[in-house]
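Note to self: keep these together.
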Amino acid sequence: MSNSRQHRSWRELSFVLPLVKWLWSFALTLFGLAIVTFAMTRLSPIDPALQLVGDHASQSTYEQARLELGLDQPLPLQFLRYVETALSGNLGQSISTGQPVAHDIARTFPATIELATTAIVLGATIGLALGIIAAMRQGTWIDGVCRLVSLFGYSVPIFWLGLLLLLLFYARLHWAPGPGRADVVFQYTVKPVTGFALIDTWRSGKPGAFRDALAHLALPATVLAIHALAAISRLTRASIITELGQEYVTTARAKGARLGRIVFVHILPNISGTLLTVIALSYASLLEGAVLTETVFAWPGIGRYLTTAMFAGDMPAILGATLVVGASFVLLNALTDLAVARLEVERKR
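Structure:
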């Protein structure tokens, strides 16, 4: 009985310790992110007070704006105020849209999540399949084709691929709709409830609207998926080839096990933590790196919002979007570490 309790306590401790480590690492990373974004506000040549009141404001108005923004206080107090307002959800007022930055991000971020999620599902599915096939057919022409596809995904510029797909499938063949998230006829007939076009159009009960949203999503998601599958397929292939040389695989082969069974039953569970990490990191990179894709396809996500803010010199919008995207990346990375640690604990049981 005592051995059973001791075993259970060790199992709980093996899960609690990574959780505490995860929380500490997550808090420190977010703190570092807050320092970086705060430093951006102070190192930027754009004066937030002058940007708020305009170039033709009087000196007294300018000084009053500095007082309201807390720019007259010491830097440590300014940083504490910045963290306090960010934690409360107040990311400032956008100069270009005239709306709160938090409102703009809540409106645009779902579009980026929808695009990145669709892309990572496609990229992970195709990338895992290519990696498994290439490893099982190592040294053959099939392996060469799979590696060529992954090399193409690594080397081709995203903006060039997006423009090429638009030219081919939209301008020449007319198989795909134009840039944007939906045709004009559906933009004002489908009420945006969740912010996710596929969900909202499906809930609307209008099959034409759902097909239109899916058609607009296809090309930009394909561009990002090609970029994501490159890293996934290469790491999957390399991990499987490494495991094929292990002793347990040699033993399984000596017992007459087929290669497919060895890969799917023995190898993939052993490298699941590695695959989960690369897929999660690829997903996080799509969330933060979809700027060019959203710009090419006029996709109204946070990447395009950030690009517009940078051209307009809208510092509150730039910092707010940077903070949200960075926090999302940190959260995904931390959750992945926690999930991988949990998988390792379960695998060793």
